[in-house]
Amino acid sequence: MSLRVMTSLSAPPRLLLIRRLSGFGGSSYKSNRAVTQRKFSSSPTPTKTKMTAEEVEMALENANESMKAYYSYPPEKVIAAKRAKFNARHMNKQFYLQLGLGVSLLCSFLATPFIGRKIAYDEEFKKKYIPSWYDYTLEKPKSAWTRAELQEQLVQLRTDLHERAIRGEFTPEKLDEKEFGKEA
Question: CA-CA distance, 120 to 97, in Å (whole number)?
Fold first, then answer.
């Protein structure tokens, strides 16, 4: 298979034309198709001499500097623009005033249940920190019965019902005769 290479030097992006002179699969058919490969102006030009170590180092540094714009996200100019916008917006410290107010409201909202419980259950704390004109608590009324009196009444009621049941006051015939809801 023989290849003939033709280059066009007049166009800025150089075209490399490779023309195939041999046929497909050994047949006598000749292809006139041209395979093109595009070379850009940034492609390295073929040189006959090798670059020295210093030249290689300089070329790599230049390539690194040019590639930094592609791999740093966001670009430095975008960061600088946002920083300038933030500084212009918050120069008068209004932002920090609003931030402080918001944080204090949040803290007071979170602390309210704990302080309320302390006020409700700690009499000493209530007397020390809550003024008397703001204290709306009600005193518990004294119970009509003590616990012993209530127990005594329950035992007496149970005994009375037991005696009435023994006498037969709760038989079905007597319950039908008695009208509930009307007291005699």
Answer: 34
pLDDT tens-digit map of 155-179: 999 999 999 999 988 888 888 887 6
Contacts of 41 (CB under 8 A, 6+ apart): 12, 13
pLDDT of 72 reads 66
| Coil, strand or helix at 154 | helix
Residue type, 167: R
- Encode pLDDT of 93-137 as tens digits: 788 888 999 999 999 999 999 999 999 899 999 999 989 888 888
Residue 67 has pLDDT above 70, yes or no: yes
8: which strand partners? 15
- Quick one: which of 27, 28, 31 has its CA closest to 3? 31
Three-state SS sequence of 158-169: HHHHHHHHHHCC
State how beta strands 3-8 and 15-20 pair: antiparallel
Say if pTM beats, i.e. exceeds, 0.90: no
The DSSP secondary structure of 3-41, one letter per residue, reads EEEEEE-SSSS-EEEEEE-S-STT-S-----EEEEE--T
Degrees, nearest 5: CA angle 54-55-56: 90
Range list of H helices, the chain: 53-71, 76-89, 94-121, 123-129, 147-167, 172-177
